[in-house]
Specification:
Blueprint (H helix, E strand, L loop, with lengths): L5 H6 L20 E10 L5 E11 L5 H5 L2 H4 L6 E7 L5 E7 L1 E4 L18 E6 L7 E7 L5 E8 L5 E4 L14 E3 L1 E3 L6 E16 L2 E18 L12 E3 H11 L6 E15 L1 H12 L19 E15 L3 H9 L11
Parallel strand pairs: 1-16
Antiparallel strand pairs: 1-2, 2-6, 3-4, 3-7, 5-6, 7-8, 9-11, 10-14, 12-13, 12-15, 15-16
Length: 343
């Protein structure tokens, strides 16, 4: 896969992908509804979201006209959405977790402007932690009890055993040193991405007043690190150049003589995804080739519908420091000497 797995996180925005059809095929029958479901469960989150809409075909109305009408997007029926957790032996352990309907505009999840109606912006929300050792079955029912669609996914667990001791080797005399990273992916993770988070504080002097703020820079390090499905260890030990960290900070921050900056530490974030999400993105990426104007594939694990029900995880490894010589390089080194770092 060429796309960075950080793209998987963008799928959480629940943007719909509709394939174009050639004009010489008449596939539109009388009105037909197809459930479209997007959900990424996260065992490390206390809130889960499911987006349920419907695809539409109608010979008598233009697609853009239908897209602008919320009635074309949402089910009028009061849907009932639940998930049930099962252990590896198929025993029901975490039953009947119920989602409730919310408007994303009221909870900080606005819909982007586009061809689809922006309001209402409806999600289904579950305020609950999930067990990373369970698989979860999704059931969506109509108000009369009829099943609209179902799906199932394993959960991705938290990464463990993170190590990047070589950070202490970074100095302004050895920018070419290689920094290694190792860890174990969470249970059910197939690929992982790693991001370095550089944390700092700034103190700004304005009109004889000091204003302080805590900030961070996220530097993507590695993409698509394969995880061994038996040991959960990453299959290759990746490295990055020490120089790239200083260059990244220099590119992202602007010299300003009125700002005094203080280094506050480094975190690493490990993002993991399961096989369902890998398969979904792989098929979507395949549509970008030279044959994308012909009949296109659709990957979905939604029964009698479209979309994806999968899992991801984000693990934060915090409190990682660099050596005193590395701090000196941040203050005086040729890449970052003019950024105002005092220590």
């Amino acid at each position: 896969m060429k796309k960075n797995i950080l793209f998987f996180s963008a799928i959480a925005s629940l943007i719909f992908i509709f394939s174009a059809c050639k004009n010489d095929f008449n596939i539109a029958a009388d009105w037909k509804e197809i459930p479209v479901v997007y959900g990424l469960l996260d065992a490390d989150s206390s809130v889960q979201y499911i987006k349920v809409e419907k695809a539409f075909l109608d010979q008598h109305l233009a697609a853009l006209q239908m897209a602008a009408n919320p009635d074309s997007m949402y089910y009028h029926d009061a849907l009932k959405i639940t998930i049930d957790g099962f252990d590896t032996y198929g025993n029901l352990k975490d039953p009947n977790k119920k989602f409730t309907l919310v408007d994303g505009d009221t909870i900080g999840l606005p819909r982007q402007s586009g061809i689809f109606a922006k309001s209402p912006n409806l999600f289904f929300r579950l305020k609950s932690k999930l067990n990373e050792n369970y698989s979860y079955n999704l059931t969506i029912k109509k108000s009369n009890g009829a099943i609209l669609t179902t799906s199932t996914t394993s959960l991705v667990g938290r990464a463990t055993n993170f190590n990047s001791a070589a950070l202490s080797l970074i100095t302004n005399k050895n920018y070419n040193s290689k920094v290694s990273v190792s860890f174990k992916g969470g249970v059910n993770s197939v690929f992982c991405d790693v991001t370095l988070r550089f944390k700092y504080m700034d103190d700004t002097l304005k009109n004889s007043m000091h204003y302080t703020g805590h900030h961070f820079l996220d530097m993507p390090l590695f993409s698509n690190l394969a995880v061994n499905n038996l040991t959960q260890a990453i299959e290759s030990k990746p490295y990055f150049d020490a120089r790239s960290l200083y260059e990244y900070v220099a590119d992202e921050l602007t010299p300003n003589s009125s700002i005094l900056r203080t280094f506050e530490g480094i975190d690493f974030l490990v993002f993991g995804v399961n096989q369902n999400l890998v398969d979904y993105v792989a098929v979507q990426n395949a549509q970008a080739g030279i044959t994308s104007g012909t009949a296109q594939l659709q990957y979905s694990n939604i029964a009698n519908g479209l979309g994806i029900f999968a899992s991801r995880s984000t693990t934060l490894f915090s409190g990682i420091n660099i050596s005193p010589t590395s701090l000196d390089s941040l203050k005086k080194g040729r890449y970052t000497y003019n950024l105002g770092f005092d220590h």
